[in-house]
Amino acid sequence: MTEPRRTFGDLLTAVAAAADGGVDWVQLRDKSASAGALYAQARALDDVLARHDTRLAVNDRLDVALAVGAAGVHLAGQSLPVAAAMRLADQRLLVGRSVHDLEEARAAADDGADYLTFGHVFPTASHDGVPPRGLAQLAEIVEAVDTPVLAIGGITVRNLDQTLATGCAGIAVISAILADANPRTAAARLREALDASPHTPRRPFSGVLRRRGTHRQPANV
Hints:
By secondary structure, this protein is an alpha/beta fold.
């Protein structure tokens, strides 16, 4: 997941390095950007990611995601409702939703979200002073919904195995890669640890659009 605290040129270089290190998806998030500016950023990122077989998602802005032909849109609490986004997307991209408790997770899953992200699991600088929700709550949500759940928030190589032990479908990170002096190496370490994990996701996330009512195929994410 990107953050706008750097020039876009620097971000583009870091994202390209992360993709080279094995990142599956990049989520473009810049809540202060206009639709036009975000579209330009998404176009530039998508061109880079296409060389690495890495997919692009756009945070919040379904219009931008559709306009650029992104593979997904990621909704927050203040975004369009999941059901409305699903209708507008019309199976042209994946629709994900950030959730922070069991009630939100069940509601988003019932509305048809393709995947959920839950966090923050561990302490993280992006939520300084806010208590983490922890592995127990992550595991509870993974067991409660029949939708792939990605964990986010303070995840590193050191705590990755215990995170995956909850049955979550994968992880999303910001600083674990972008704050590293070598994003490619940081991404490669996470990729290696993910691929070596003995833990099986309860609901795997293939990252591939599917017809409603069909089953997802297992994949490492």
